[in-house]
Amino acid sequence: MKKEFVQFRCSIYEKKLLRVKAKKSGLSISEYCRRAAFEDRIIERFTKEQIEMYKMLAKYELNFKRIGNMFRKRNPKLADEVVQLANKIRRHLLGFKK
Predict the structure, then answer these.
(1) Would you say which domain of life the source belongs to (predicted)?
(2) What is the rounded CA–CA span in Å between residue 37 and residue 9?
(3) Residue-wise over 13-32: b if at least 16 C-beta within 10 A, else e?
(4) Among 46, 81, 93, 95, which is least packed by CB within 10 angstroms?
């Protein structure tokens, strides 16, 4: 239970910046400052546009894997390059989970 009250001074710009960063992460200013002080993980929430881009990348990754599988017998070199691209996209997508 939180009973203690702590104040600190900052400039107007710093306060606005704290407010913006807290809003992006879905936290109150006090919770954001608390997590920052204790070096807890602060995760920025995705916007709707970012979520759409994530979904689009996931579709691209799947499509490139399918294309790679389709060309595996006809042109193995092309298939390997396409699969490598799909794997790069996959690694990038997995980076969002951390």
Answers:
(1) Bacteria
(2) 15
(3) eeeeebeebbeebebeeeeb
(4) 95
Q: Is 68 exposed, middle or buried (0-12, 13-18, 19+ CB in 10 A)?
A: buried
Quick one: 95 exposed, middle or buried, by C-beta within 10 A (0-12, 13-18, 19+)?
exposed
As given in the structure block, the two tokens for residue 31 are: 């919770």
Report helix, strand or coil for 38: coil
CA 72, 77, 78, 80 dihedral sign is positive
